[in-house]
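Review form for a predicted model. The reviewer records the input and the model, then writes brief findings.
Reviewer: anonymous (R2)
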Amino acid sequence: MEADPRSRAAAGAAVVVGALAVAAALCAGPSRHRAGAAPSPDSYRWGGPLVPAPLVSRGKRVASKPAGGEVLVDGVYRTAAVWAGGHPTPEDPSWVSIRIGAGYERLLLSWTSSGNHDWSDQVNGAALDYRIETSPDSSDGRDGRWRTVVSVAGNPVRTRAHAFDFHRQRWVRLVVTRLPEKMNPWGLFLDELDVHDLSGGGDDTWVFFGDSITSSVFDRAPPHQPSFAEAIAARHPGYLPAMISAGKGCLHHGDAVRLVDEVLALNPDARVVALGFGSNDWDPAAFRADLLEVIRRVRAAGRIPVIARIPFRPGSTVDHPARLNAVVDEVTASLGLLPGPDLYAWFAAHPEQLRDGLHPDDRGAVEMSRLWAEAVAPLYPPATVASR
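Model under review:
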């Protein structure tokens, strides 16, 4: 007998809270830039300027089975407020529809199951098999004609984004048909669906690839707001990046080489790849070789790589981050990359914002997102607010 949706939602609260506790393109020319904004001369040098990809789903009309899908467009991530989708099957799927409206040509839909911590975690409610459908004539998100524009089987991660044609369409629907074999007893839990408009060539799309610091900082949880996306929006009106957090606990530089192709393949629409690893490493020569290989693959895929300086780590007898940051600086300069944020300097000056000597606390997470937003400002029109 199917559990009451309210019971599943309550279970979802426990799952999310538990997970939180456990979790300690080629350069574009001037024609890509939107009218009326003046990019910095260096923006083209770094691979910009990025084109806005406006968020168009927030607060829109929603229909779902089971009920409760309205929570997916409330702009709140990684809380107990989740959509409890039960145990869908191909014969009895769970679905949520959003009325985007007419006038859009191409969209990007991202979903997240934030009860999971690392990108590869799925047990706390991620989808395994699903599809995305659009409709030109549905009146309520249930009836009407629907066509499949994306189909996924065997999804291996907790959050994905997919671009698709939306010409003369009005509704978009995420249909989940199967969950991973290893799954919590209550089933599907999603906390947010974001739909961004790519009709104008929008490519303000990001994937953050790194270690457990990436997993915890870029989850967009309320204590971590303003997140990177909101920090960009505050500095650059008209922009609100689409972002995927692809963090993995205990990631070493060798793991980054092993996983980067999957990250690129599963995020084909991510224009910028923000790299944040090194806190688990110590050998400068080996780190340099693998960092160069990761960057080579990112650039070969037509993406923009940006490397953060590794955060300071208090209490160590050997300052490995400083040694590895010399590599980061040399590689960034020699390859002509946009320099990433200096997380070492910030946390050396503010070690109290490291809750365990390694992972930022809530305040540290907010500051880290701000530092990222400031560092990548050359990819956007000039900031309209003074940086701190």
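Findings: The longest strand covers residues 171-178.
Further findings: The CA atoms of residues 310 and 321 lie 6 Å apart.
Recommendation: see findings above.
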